[in-house]
Amino acid sequence: MSKNIFTDKEIAVLSSNPYVKSVSPKGITYSEEFKQYFITEYHKGKLSREIFEEAGFDVNVLGIKRVKSCSSRWRKAYNNTGILGLKDSRSESLGRPRKNELSLEEQNARLEAQINLLKAENELLKKIRLAERGQK
């Protein structure tokens, strides 16, 4: 969280941006789409500030420190775990991990969910590659 507090007017402006999931007076949650867009543009050689401005953000409202910290956090997450590192996993955390063993049906359901997630990720990567080829 930043020390900069957003005013009600700034919250309204930030909330209207399609790349914003939610805004509170102290923080902003960006969409996964924006994080992926940020990484692709950054790898093309653009500066963090330019990417935020092109996406419709006022860097003076956000604060340059917030822009730089988001940039370094997202790049580090992407380098460590790829696109999955950019995913907001706070809603998926269910608290304390299970101690008991899962039944075969539960294991099978989890593995199927994981397979579906990986298939969706592969489709997304294919779309990104096609889009990059179209730009060249």
Any overview of this molecule?
- A hairpin with a 4-residue loop joins β1 (20-23) and β2 (28-30).
- The protein has helices spanning 8-15, 32-43, 48-54, 59-62, 64-81, 104-135, and strands spanning 20-23, 28-30.
- It is globular, with a radius of gyration of 18 Å.
- It folds into two domains: 1-87, no CATH class; 101-136.
- By secondary structure, the protein is mostly helical.
Q: What portion of the residues fall into strands of 2 or more residues?
A: 5-15%
Shape: globular
Strands, total number: 2
Count of runs of 4 or more consecutive helical residues: 6
Low-confidence stretches: none
How is the main sheet built? Answer: 2 strands, antiparallel
Which structural class is indicated by helix and strand composition?
Answer: mainly alpha
First-last Cα distance: 39 Å
- List SSEs in N-to-C order: HEEHHHHH
Helix content: 55-70%
Mean pLDDT: 88
Radius of gyration: 18 Å
How many structurally independent domains?
Answer: 2
Strand order of the largest sheet: 1-2
Structural key phrases:
2 domains; 136 residues; mainly alpha
Q: What's the gist of this structure?
A:
With 136 residues, the chain is mainly alpha-helical.
